[in-house]
Amino acid sequence: MKSIRLKPGKERSLQRHHPWVFDGAIAKGSADAGETVRVDGADGQFLAWGAYSPASKIRVRAWSFDQGQRIDAAFFKERLRAALALRERLAIASDGVRLVHAESDGLPGLVVDRYGDTLVAQFGAAGVERWKDAIADALVELTGCERLYERSDTSSRRLEGLADATGWLRGQGDTALVLQEHGWRLGLDVASGHKTGYYLDQRDSRAACRDLVQRFGLAEVFNGYCYSGGFTVAALAGGARRVLSVDSSGPALEQARANVALNGFDADRCEWLDADVNASLRRLIDEGRQFDGIVLDPPKLAPTAAHAERAARAYKDINRLGFKLLRPGGVLFTFSCSGGVGVELFHKIVASAGLEAGVDGVFLQRLGGACDHPMTVNFPEGEYLKGLVVMRRP
Q: Residue 24 CB: number of other CB atoms within 10 A?
């Protein structure tokens, strides 16, 4: 078994069971991509077993902090069994569920979503890539699903020095699916959709949007970065009279239209715009338009803290424009999925945007990832999705 020794003073994070070892913390030792290594402190004392990744700044991702633990196929099967057991206890009212949430489930780099009888997996790190076949076999056995599609085409994978990989790992068939959520039917494609096909992490936020649209009678809603229309469907379900949905992807808008039809809503209640969201916000302000509800759910702008300053400016601009379009008494639903922008910083950004827009706003609610996307006490980086609901005072 190969071993890695840390520099003096670099043991603390592993002692606190944080799963990452950065390249600068290592004094000596190396291994092949994905190979299991023993990680020792500067004094030679055992700290963890982990997967080595020679191409990544995160040089080791810890599997276990138990010196007696064997890292083998049985280990991965038990970790998967525990992740599935947690989701069963959560009793999620949807057949679209995040089954494995990487580090938060003790399986760094692995994401698994279930859509009905189909599994979709992302192998985003060298360690899980090395154990891919064993993990795939265990997933099929433990879930009873015969179809497993791979969507290993993430930027994090490329940082690991791994090539993209997509396609059926187990089973085959149509990649276009329909999931059930909050009584709605939502179409997706696991081969071409964002992430594993859909944004399951926004499940609770879509329900919150529906509820607040209904409670406050938000008649006209703007949905920016609408993707396949999840928040559009939510606003319509809440009783919105009209929803303007904007995205720069034609295929996403086509799926959004299909999702509106799939749920039996009148197409006349919807307006679609294939355009840049920022430019659209500015144009609507110039036209004197206003909305009762505004949803802003932009793509990731700061994957790491190093990108936070630039991302903060972009988030501030987006939200400032959104506030200007918001009618008195209206509600803004705004989100950041950037891991490099923390909860406190995002709150400050939105508050500053409201001040610059001249809006007297009240923060009604904080939103985050759904409960099947857990954040753990030893891995706070799991809290990547942040949302705020802000009402403009009448």
A: 9
The one catalytic residue in 145, 209, 337, 371 is 337
Closest CA to 245 of 221, 217, 279: 221
pLDDT at 303: 67
Burial 86-113 (b: 16+ CB within 10 A, else e): bbeeeebebebbbbbbbbbbbbbbbbbb
Percent of the chain at pLDDT above 70? 99
Nearest-angstrom CA–CA distance, 55 and 162: 9
pLDDT value at residue 302? 64
Write the CA distances from 222 to 9, 181, 318, 324, 344, integer angstroms.
51, 22, 13, 12, 26
pTM of the model: 0.94
Q: How far apart are CA 386 and CA 311, in angstroms?
A: 14
Report whether 104 contacts 111 (CB < 8 A): no
Closest CA to 281 of 336, 202, 225, 231: 225
Residue 128 CA neighbour count, 13 Å, CB half: 31
Sign of CA dihedral 224, 230, 233, 234: negative
Q: What is the CB-side half-sphere exposure of residue 95 using CA atoms within 13 A? A: 17
Q: Which helix (H) or strand (E) holds 165?
A: strand 165-170
337 is annotated as an active-site residue: yes
Would you say how long the chain is, in residues? 394
Tokens of 262: 């799939």
Instruction: Please list the ranges in the chain whose pLDDT falls under 70.
Output: 302-305
